[in-house]
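Long-time lurker, first post. I've been practising inverse folding by hand and with some scripts of my own, and I keep getting stuck on stretches where the structure tokens seem ambiguous. Below is the full token string for one chain I'm working on. Before anyone asks, I'm not after the true native sequence, just a reasonable design that respects the backbone. If someone could post their per-position residues I'd love to compare against what I wrote down in my notebook.
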């Protein structure tokens, strides 16, 4: 089998150089600070034994981007906050579609639709943030107890979590590491 030249060239290329140690450590500290700002006061202290969650799995990837790729558009607050809120709404809409059709349209259709529509909606609204597509799936696949709480309680973590995450990222990046983050808020 003959591979196209571009693929062969990519196979022969090398990965970019490793960032300096200070940048590696600073990025890790920022990501940890972002998750700590969410986890400690809100998730574990306030809601420790409840079915409501404030710490979504997709926030881990968001913290990684805010810490490690703070200068990219996908790391800016507009993208982080808007992407998660839009994706949560899309995921919940897909869940409602599944319910409205008597589960005729199952998860095998709504999960891919949710991720695809969330991606398209983020691009259309200039809030593209890749980890937020995971928030659409989390909202869609939540437990019955979570869905019984209604839209407001499901969108709340998708709004407040990224706001806190971006604030912690701004504080850590600007104050501790002297890095420009965010480059724009909205």
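-- Answer (accepted) --
I ran through it position by position. Result:
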């Amino acid at each position: 089998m003959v591979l196209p030249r571009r693929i062969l060239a990519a196979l022969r290329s090398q990965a970019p150089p490793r960032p300096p140690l200070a940048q590696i450590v600073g990025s890790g500290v920022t990501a940890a600070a972002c998750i700590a700002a969410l986890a400690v006061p809100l998730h574990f202290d306030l809601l420790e034994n409840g079915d409501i969650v404030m710490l979504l799995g997709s926030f881990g990837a968001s913290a990684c981007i805010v810490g490690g790729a703070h200068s990219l558009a996908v790391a800016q607050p507009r993208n982080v906050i808007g992407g998660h809120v839009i994706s949560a709404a899309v995921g919940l809409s897909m869940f409602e579609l599944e319910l409205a059709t008597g589960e005729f349209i199952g998860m095998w259709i709504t999960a891919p639709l949710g991720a695809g529509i969330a991606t398209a909606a983020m691009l259309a609204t200039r809030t593209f943030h890749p980890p937020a597509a995971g928030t659409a799936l989390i909202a869609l696949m939540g437990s019955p107890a979570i869905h019984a709480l209604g839209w407001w309680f499901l969108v709340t973590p998708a709004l407040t979590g990224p706001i806190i995450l971006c604030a912690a990222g701004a504080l850590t990046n600007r104050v501790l590491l002297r890095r420009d983050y965010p480059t724009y808020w909205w």
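A couple of notes from the structure itself: Residues 21-46 form the longest helix (26 residues). The CA atoms of residues 18 and 76 lie 23 Å apart. Happy to go over any region you disagree with.
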